[in-house]
Task: inverse folding
């Protein structure tokens, strides 16, 4: 068993949607790896304020997404049962609980939230209730300030619903929660989401090593510029003790942009070998969130076009999202394209499908491509940075197609499903061998080395900061 460096392991992300995609699948997979093979239990911390996170965790357990030492803890659920030290509640807190009859969110018949919005539908206040109906926390986002603006104030309440403590700004609340959970224990905080990385870049404690894990591409679709959503965090990469990328090419590109910072590391996602079903394979499959960035409509168009040349060819699409209704219309009614929605067991389709289609606008690692290769399902992917280019050896373990070229995608799909079976068997064998390079034990070794390096850097930075503070104090005294 590979030993991770001593210290608690926390994962910080915004939330875990029921129909989650690659980012959440990867962080849960890594957490199970740390627990089962690294001997380190993991707390996954979420900060989204949806009503029913308790049921979501139960569903994760039912789907075996959690191991014995991995648990999910949500901030707002935690505040229902625990005290947290904050500022005394003063008149500027704007404490004004929402009355009965406000818009309510229920879970299993119990009111857990009351919500107030403005005329445009923008949320102005969320009150989080305990199962007994008492107020646990009031999150107001429209508290007036002396200069005519507004601020966000969170007030927590005692068991009777009376105000107890307040925080100006939700980031102050996040920091207080982490301080409480970590105490003075050595801790590794792995931050997986962009939203929480903005907060974590400013969270600095002597006992907490903060590591940002970048899951998606940092570039715009044309590869020419930094995504606006990444700008704030990428301007402060030096604030983290380590920044981890899934591919070496992305780390090199970021290093060119931000300079030779000694904190960039490369750790791919672990991939388990999958036992393929015996017998012939047929058809194509898509596993993706049905949203614009995934361009699943291109896969649908390619499958329908290929079916005109290869009668009986089918495409099975697993996933859900805002594009589902439009894709159902594009799929037609002839049965060549079948949309199954979100299915926890969708990855089992990789053991029997002949090919996987990946049509994303951008990718960082493409976990689904690696999983397909491990299962002997050959990927046909748009040639976008970064994952497909580093995982797929064109013509040997899959195929790369110019991004956005549906005609070429169609031609490649036809060629793939009509290739001689002996050639396909050799390609599947090579794909499985390529995926085996991402074995869990190898990936865990890299995580162990990365976290030890981050801890050393953290200690050096703390000593430097303490020295500078000592010099400043002496100068002030002098």
Result:
């Amino acid at each position: 068993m590979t030993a991770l460096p001593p210290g608690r392991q926390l994962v910080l992300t915004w939330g875990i949607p029921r129909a989650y995609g690659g980012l959440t699948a990867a962080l849960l997979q890594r957490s199970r790896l740390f627990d089962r093979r690294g001997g380190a239990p993991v707390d996954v911390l979420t900060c989204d304020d949806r009503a029913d996170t308790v049921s979501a965790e139960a569903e994760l357990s039912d789907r075996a997404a959690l191991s014995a030492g991995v648990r999910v803890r949500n901030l707002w659920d935690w505040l229902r049962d625990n005290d947290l030290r904050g500022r005394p509640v003063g008149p500027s807190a704007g404490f004004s609980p929402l009355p009965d009859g406000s818009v309510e969110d229920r879970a299993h018949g119990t009111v857990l939230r009351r919500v107030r919005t403005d005329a445009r539908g923008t949320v102005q206040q969320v009150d989080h209730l305990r199962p007994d109906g008492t107020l646990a926390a009031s999150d107001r986002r429209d508290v007036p300030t002396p200069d005519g603006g507004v601020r966000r104030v969170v007030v927590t309440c005692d068991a009777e619903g009376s105000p107890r403590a307040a925080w100006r700004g939700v980031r102050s609340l996040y920091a207080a929660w982490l301080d409480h959970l970590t105490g003075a224990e050595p801790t590794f905080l792995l931050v997986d989401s962009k939203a929480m990385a903005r907060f974590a870049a400013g969270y600095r404690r002597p006992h907490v090593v903060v590591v940002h894990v970048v899951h998606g591409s940092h570039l715009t679709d044309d590869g020419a510029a930094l995504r606006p959503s990444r700008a704030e965090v990428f301007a402060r990469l030096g604030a983290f003790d380590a920044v981890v990328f899934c591919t070496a090419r992305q780390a090199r590109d970021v290093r060119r942009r931000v300079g030779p910072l000694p904190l960039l590391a490369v750790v791919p996602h672990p991939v388990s070998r999958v036992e393929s079903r015996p017998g012939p394979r047929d058809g194509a499959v898509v596993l993706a969130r049905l949203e614009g960035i995934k361009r699943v409509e291109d896969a649908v168009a390619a499958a329908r076009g290929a079916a005109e040349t290869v009668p009986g060819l089918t495409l099975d699409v697993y996933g859900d999202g805002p594009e589902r209704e439009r894709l159902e219309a594009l799929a037609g009614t002839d049965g060549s394209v079948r949309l199954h929605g979100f299915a926890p067991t969708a990855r089992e389709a990789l053991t029997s499908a002949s090919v996987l289609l990946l049509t994303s606008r951008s990718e960082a690692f493409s976990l689904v491509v690696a999983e397909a290769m491990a299962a002997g399902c050959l990927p046909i992917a748009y040639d976008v940075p970064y994952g497909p280019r580093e995982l797929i050896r064109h013509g040997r373990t899959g195929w790369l197609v110019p991004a956005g070229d549906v005609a070429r995608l169609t031609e490649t799909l036809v060629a793939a499903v009509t290739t001689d079976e002996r050639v396909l068997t050799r390609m599947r064998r090579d794909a499985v061998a390529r995926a085996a390079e991402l074995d869990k034990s190898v990936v865990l070794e890299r995580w162990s080395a990365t976290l030890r390096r981050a801890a050393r850097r953290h200690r050096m930075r703390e000593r430097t900061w303490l020295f500078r503070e000592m010099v400043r104090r002496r100068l002030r005294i002098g």
About this structure: The chain has three domains: 8-79+183-266, 82-169, 284-436. DSSP finds 14 helices and 19 strands in the chain. The domain at 284-436 is CATH 3.40.50.2000 (Rossmann fold).
